[in-house]
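quick one before i forget lol
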Amino acid sequence: MPETALRSDIPTRAETRRRIRRAAYRLLAVLMLGATVAGVWMTNTWLTERFTETTRMRTELRLALYSGNIISELQRTSVVPLLLARDPELSKSLNSGDFSTTSGLLIAARDEVGVASIRLLDLQGRVVAATDRNVLSTTFKDAPFFVDAQRSRDTIFTAVKGVTGASDFVYSRAVLSEGKLIGVIVVGADLARYERAWAGISDAVAVLDSSGQIVLATEPRWRGVTMEEALAVRSAPSAIERALQATADWANEPPDAWVSGQAVMRTEARLPFRGWRMVAFTPYTSVRDRVNAVIALEIMGFAVLMALGFYFVSRRAKVQSAVYRRESAELRALNARLKREIAERERVQKDLSLAEQTLEQSSKLAVLGEMSAAVSHELNQPLAAMKTYLAGARLLLQRERVAEALSSFQRIDDLIERMGAITRQLKSYARKGGDAVEPVDLRAALSSALAMMEPQLKARTVRILRNLPRGQVMVLADRIRLEQVIINLLRNALDATKAVRSPEIEISLTADEMAVLTVADNGPGISDLEKLFEPFWTTKKPGEGTGLGLAISSSIVSDFGGRLTAQNAETGGAVFELRLPRLTAGMNAPESGRRAAE
């Protein structure tokens, strides 16, 4: 009996331990959840107070800056009426009644001191001169600034409410001549620009005078009313809107006011001017966003801890499933080997297909580079020039100017001969070197290239600076191919200066042991110098270039025994440098030509 009781008690004890373990896990989960809620609540309370105080301090600093700007503007404007009231030209105009040049003087004074407006009134309150000519002949005899200025010999400040509700802030002063009142000068302070500047921030800002009326505000409907009336003008939110707003503002302190449906804190500062005050309403959005960001990180940390707890709990189940994993390990390994073999075969097939496509494309590009690309690139300039000369010849024939038209046809004939020479030279682009070299004047080749580029240069306003020696600079080269290289450099310089406001191309030629031709522009420069002379590399849009010009030019210069380089200038723009061996009088031209060809 005791043995049987012992056997029946063993599973009961195991079940009890399992129940205790499950209860411990549940208790641990509840404790962690409670700790999360308590931590989030305490973090929310502490961070809300801290970030709110920081936001309020920043708003106070901002108000101090704004008030300083307003006081500075008012003090600067208050001096202007005193200076203008003593201006002899204004007194002379009022005494003589001649105001033909007075408005111009006031406009010049306004531009110099930077005030909003200046008006000159006679004794009847009529505007006889003003920076705004639309108010000329307007009468202000009952205006406070005119009446008060007549009664006092000091500068009078007046805030006049305009038609739109905005206030105009003016300083007025009597103009005296030999102690006798002859007129009133009125100067307006430009405080509206600060109002426009405040509109660019998220805070709502208002300036109140001593009577509590709002004279400046970022909200146009606030002008001319008290702050209580301004805050009361808002649509009543519905029950759903109030519920959503309460949910959104759960991290905030009770708001000081509501502006445009947003809960805001109120910050006030006093201006040392006639009892004025400045009030700013800062939304709690920044506070709420910063608090929510920290709380999100805190919740994420508690979530990671809970995940780690569940991970350790699940380890027991993983141990139990380890037996089943060992039994299927060999089968999974075999399956993995089969998958690797299949993937390897598919990869080999893809590589083979890609290699075939690459080889085919390379062949197509080689044929394209040898046959079509060179022709389309090198014949572009003669064709463009021919089109221009044909248009000019047609216009000359219509005007019966036959002699000048024949001159255009002669130029077209020269271009046709040049195109024939270019097509005969195309085979030199496909092979290294050549033997068709002769002494060529680099100055003459440059002049010929500029003549070929004449239509493009006339189509745009481009400043060409040339720094050339007076004498000949002889090199050993083929004249046609050398001109094509210079044309390519000039075309690149023209294309680089398309977006420049004042395009400029500087051409320099120096002659020492080497003849150096430099073409510099003031464009944006070269983004990738390493790929510049590679075939088919270009920064132009599709259809504007093939990317072969500089590659072909570099090959031609190498055939002549020279070198073509490029770099970015320190002041901006690209600089191309063409260096060729100079042919001096003591050199044997044919032997030098053979060496360059080799």
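fyi Residues 2-85 form the longest helix (84 residues).
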